[in-house]
Amino acid sequence: MPHxxxxxxxxxxxxxxxxxxxxxxxxIMVLLGIELMFNAANLNLVAFNRINGPNLDxxxxxxxxxxxxxCEAAVGLALILRIYRYYQSxxxxxxSELKG
Amino acid sequence: xxxxxxxxxxxxxxxxxxxxAIVFSKNVFRSALWLLVCLLxxxxxxxxxxxxxxxxxxxxxxxxxxxxILLFGIMLTTRISGKPLVxxxxxxxxxxxxxxxLFVLLSLYLPGLTVEKNMLSPEPVSTLGLQLFSQYSLxxxxxxxxxxxxxxxxxxxxxxxxxxx
Lengths: 100, 165
What we know:
Chain A is mainly alpha-helical and 100 residues long. Chain A is 75% helix and 0% strand.
């Protein structure tokens, strides 16, 4: 019973993260939605690790997901700061050219 | 319903509510704070699923690291633009349709899942440490190098150096 709740919660959080990524007009909010989706994946890994028995592969994989999320957040925010300085704007729709 | 089940349901509901609050909040700063609530309640769920180390890592890295970086970015960008932090929504209908469709599609398959009896390891943290430094030691080292590269890359990207090549 609690596992099914965890899996449903993970699905819900993933869909909410997707919704945030689609509807928000701010690059930082898009990053925030991506973090929520990472967390949903981690929740799934923890929930399904119980099937796997005594070894903890799911937890280790979730740990590496957290590490990748840190890298993604750091590089993403650096890019967003740089783009803000150039465009003076936060809407991802307006970032239409690569060469600054 | 036992006490543990009640706490479990409380944390699950709190994280779902915080996620919904992020969607409806138009203030970026408040959304980040709701994300903090969501992350901390997920850490509580990890503790109840006997993933204590992951819960501590969640609190230290996510709530302490990533969220601080996000708040830092929010403050810096508002100082540059000088505008209030109100975020408009766009593509509401299509976004909601996508999310609801994905959720329905996922939940069609979820009730068929059968989780077998709990085969928990007797000492989760020490098992995790042994596995991390024996079976997954190469992955661990590569993750460290990746963190270093990402840190240097972020510093170079965000720096003010005029490297017009």
